[in-house]
Structures
1.
Amino acid sequence: MKLEFHPYNLELKNTFTISHGSRDFQPTLIVAVSDGGHTGYGEATATSYYGVSIEKMQQDIRELEPLLAENIHKTPEEIWELTWPMLKQNPFAQCALDIALHDLHGKRNGQPLYKMWGLDVSNIPLTNYTIGIDTVEKMVQKIKDFPWPLYKIKLGTQDDVAIVRELRKHTKSVFRVDANAAWTADQAIENANALKELNVEFLEQPLKADDWEGMKKLYKESVLPLIADESCIVESDVEKCAGHFHGINIKLTKCGGLTPGKRMIEKAKKLGLKVMVGCMTESTVGISAIAQLLPLLDYVDMDGGLLIKNDIADGVKVYDEKVHFPERNGTGAELYEKQKKS
């Protein structure tokens, strides 16, 4: 068993601003796990907002090397259970490792993951393309620069409805709105009425993550569906969201990878919730992992590869308003040769 780390700084095409802050680069860690015959690749981005660093992810995974070597031929789910007690304080590291082990597992078995799971990718949702907070002129320009049928608009300003109204003048594409927990319940109710008229499909995380009372009121009165993001981080959060949201947005990095992500999807469907999986501006390595889940999803936000200038891998790609799967096993991700040497 061989364990390797490839840290990168992904350069964003545009300064990316949400209500939490702005950034021009996205640090990310690629974890490569080899069993002597195949190599699996996983990824998790680092974010100061969640206290996650590249160095800490590497350190925490490296400490598990003897355990991994001893259990490398077990399934990813079995290894997840073995490693979670040590990594539960660092789910981003758990995610990178879990994706790498799933990729390895698919390659060992000679199939893409979605086929191993008995899924069909012929009818799958298309990703939205994210427009971060900026001046209205720059947000309009981003839409003109990247024509797409579905946009996620990041909001959380004093003029949110006015921004969407202006953007609507420049495209007929469907909008999704992500307020990143910036509104009150009353603001959200009022904004939803206006936004519905502007062809907004749903509202994502309108209130603070722990404002369950506000969400109860909003759930009863909102004219738009409500999708949880920061309110639904780990598996135990899914049940809380029923009766407060109409759906959940699962982030593999936050919950600890594909293994718990699949369980969250199953639990949400049993509760009658819509399911979305979102990205954290990962490269094609992370996006290819998300893509394996597409047949199980109602919505998806996997535009990471579209938002960066210097993608580091081949794999599942999004272009021509379609998702394109490579003829490869596992997740389908493969680091570009020049990146393997870095």
2.
Amino acid sequence: MPEAVIDNPELARQFEPYAEAHIPGAKNLRVVQMRRIHGGASRQTYSVDIAYEDATGLKTKGVILRRDPADSLIDTERRVEFAAIRTAHGKAGIPAPEALFLETDTGPLGAPFFVMGRIEGGMPLNPFQIDAVEPHRAEVGREFFRHLGAIASLEIDGTPIAEEIETPAPDQCWKRELDYWANEIRTNAREPQPVAEAAIRYLAANPPPPAQKLSLVHGDFRSGNFLHDGQGRINAVLDWEMAHIGDPYEDLAWATDLLWCGNDQERAAGFIPWPDAIAVWQEASGCSFEPAAFEWWSLFAHLKGLGIWITSARAFADGKNDDPILAWSGWFTHAAHELMLASRLAPKFGVKL
């Protein structure tokens, strides 16, 4: 065995017998490398190399371990994330990882977790440095909207995620999401949130058209949550922890939110011109573009962002999670989304800024 490079030796020691028991025919399994991947705050994520023997000889495998922290940027259910990955993996060309095993008991690793296959050969993209994909910005953009549409195109009946969670009625998708995030904001806010409250009232009073179809919603599809090969190809769609069943416009609006595209209003998601992006998404998803639906969900995306940042700030302030990304989110990204909401809501309420 090569010399181990392990960030968390105790976790590696606990993981070895569990992985050996869950890989058919494996014996003498060892963790060769365990490296913490920082940047997200909803799961503790580790890239793990394992080596083991089976009937055919020595095998090596790279996996991703996602373990629940004490508290996170968003409170999510690992069963749903695992089911979403299983639903998308190998379907419609979506580069979702392979879901390997799920553990809801705290005994083996001290907290619930799941393990998925590691997709090799990709690099992340900082959503605040989209220029880094040049000269392949257009190719990445077309891949981005093609995969977004492909997720929306999946039939959900009988899929793993449909077995885990309730499927809403087409005309109730918006209300379920608005009610959820309004509750998150009101429960976790540490000071008054007048802009968020104005948005909640406006969105409730002006609902969008019913969903054209019910789809798998990734929930956090955006720059920063995929890997690319540096040559214009996206080879992994990551971070499915906010997945659910709903209106595909929710994903389209979140993916193109100004926060994730460097405030580039000419290019959708900061990648390609809006008409091109919408055309790719329509073809891949089978949906037709409705401006009224997009307008509602786009405003909602700002509010959803506020819900995430307010929740993260509360978790940090209460000492439940000391990851500094939560404090940063509660300050910088909160201010950005609050300003976006205020500037778009003001004309609707007859206010000049």
3.
Amino acid sequence: MKLHNNTIRGVHQALDAIFEQGQYADKVIERTLKSNPKWGARDRSFIAETTYEMVRWWRLITYLSPSNDYWDLFGTYWLMQGNALPPWEEFERLNAEKIKGKFESLKNPAILESIPDWLEEIGKKELGELWQAEIQSLNEEAEVVLRVNTLKTTRERLKNQLAADGIQTYIVKGYPDALVLEERQNVFRNPAFKEGLFEVQDASSQLVAAALAVEPGMRVIDACAGAGGKSLHLAALMENKGKVISMDVEEWKLQQAKLRARRNGVSIFEPKLIEGSKTIKRLKESADRLLLDVPCSGLGVLRRNPDTKWKLSPESIEKVQQTQQELLQTYPSMLKPGGQMVYATCSILPSENELQVKKFLESEAGKEFQLIEETKVLAQESGFDGFYIARLLKK
């Protein structure tokens, strides 16, 4: 593939915003691509994919590179991919054989898997012999998965409609609403997306709403709704009958969820801003079902958010664990007796998952609850994101 100076500079600009200014990779790439309308589809794809892959392998690249100069870092990455560099003066410091030799003599697993040392330690401690294969799986590029909006179409119909537009997808057993793209591409420009026929949502994430076992006519609370992806799935599973109350502490996320609900043709969606403990108290024992898709480390979704591993720390994981337990101690009061609750995270760490549920069940607040089932989804087994899903019954 022929390299172009201006697209490499686009990658440099994005990396600088991510690593020097601490910005989120997805937002940076979106902004970078908007900054130059002259870039064609191939250029945009090159910038997005190269930036993500360099972020993913950042520690390994910086270890192998002769310096922290962006041209050296890019050139090192390019050579790691098995490519040849053009004879540009920007790349004159790079020696392919030297880089190869340094890589072949490397023994440190944390550098090889391009993660911080502390993460290697936590991973080994919590997952034991499963850790090595899991971090390798989480370093692979994520597939693009669609969730069919069953309020507007069927999976077969959408599959055929997308195929007619040149977008090939395949079905995965065990995920009734999912279609996986055979090739990465921007599906947001497709008319089917604008018509609300699908959302982009990982297959593992689609298991969460399904685990809640909702029925049409129920009153369901999605207590950490964010931008509402799982709320929309719940509404579809309820056939748009009943009520889905989507709660969050961030108003802008609920506004986004509102727009998505409109596009999806969901009329049972009710956004509710959490303004403090009073909001929770007012909804005491009002829900047939409660979804707690709690804040977490996000270690299960490193494939699609590789910059997460550079933004996390042992302290931030400890802090998020405190938040998880606080939510478990207070939010289940919104569930009616006889109702069911799902506690979910996109983490693979037992300390955020089954150990949190165990702690809750052993506490005063959890004594009315019993665990019905739990699902631990590892990327190495599913091929999708890492998730944890526990279903509990309020006696």
4.
Amino acid sequence: MFFSIIIPLYNRPQEIKELLETLTLQTYKQFEVLVIEDGSVHDAETIVNSFTDRLNVRYFKKSNEGQGFTRNYGFERAKGDYFIIFDSDCLIPANYLEIVNNSLATNYLDAYGGPDGAHASFTPTQKAISYSMTSPFTTGGIRGNKKAIGQFHPRSFNMGVSRQVWEKAGGFVITRLGEDIEYSIRIHSLGFKIGLIPDAIVYHKRRTNFLQFYKQLHFFGRARINIYKFFPEQLKLVHFFPAAFTLFILGTIVFNLLNWQIAQLGNFILALIILLIFFHAWWKNKSAKIAFLSIIAAFTQLIAYGLGFMQDFWKRVIFNRS
């Protein structure tokens, strides 16, 4: 199997350097790398070209269109039997491609997704954010795992599709706001076999501070409504959870300010949630500091997603505005 690794890039030269360093260590060598600069002001051409003696890497520049259409640009130029998409803020374990190749050889999938995890080099904040994005007490409990609600939908930070999928399904039809979920659903609808490769883990840095994390998750909440506009049946009750949680917090604050008795119940539930997150994160990361930061990350994630979801639900579903 010959793999084409496709990486869209926008103003993140240092990230691509770290990612390419990890690709030089792959134990499986049959692959190429395509880095597509999506109209960046701070480009990484010099950095990428410095790897040409260690990697089969090609560098492209194009006008800014967003990550979905930038991946399509890579698909059109890829030579591989199988295309793999990474985000530029990922680090790839040395045996990643070997794991994927062996898995596809024994149980072939037309498209796959893999989990994300926290690398030992991550900062405590990055580890807390990684915990929040994979925790059973947040939206992480329904994404990127075998227990996902309904169909499994690979996410574009760690996703592979065969050349046959590309030839029949084409590429991304929206460039952002849930483009990977839309693509996964469309691949499913064409009868292709999609699944999770549990050991195909990448270390996903995501955002480096809570403000950036908030902005990203607010965007994700809006993306869920964008998917609803394409596939109404894909909006499940569980997707309302972050919005309900956000309203619960706001209600508890108001009840406390009004000194209503029901506030005591809200305070108890919030305290229980905080303790669950703290001790679970402590158990997962063996660090009280990361556990404390995980509380902030989890509340940031749920509130940001909930507000983004409610914003576009109100605008695009209730009032049917674009």
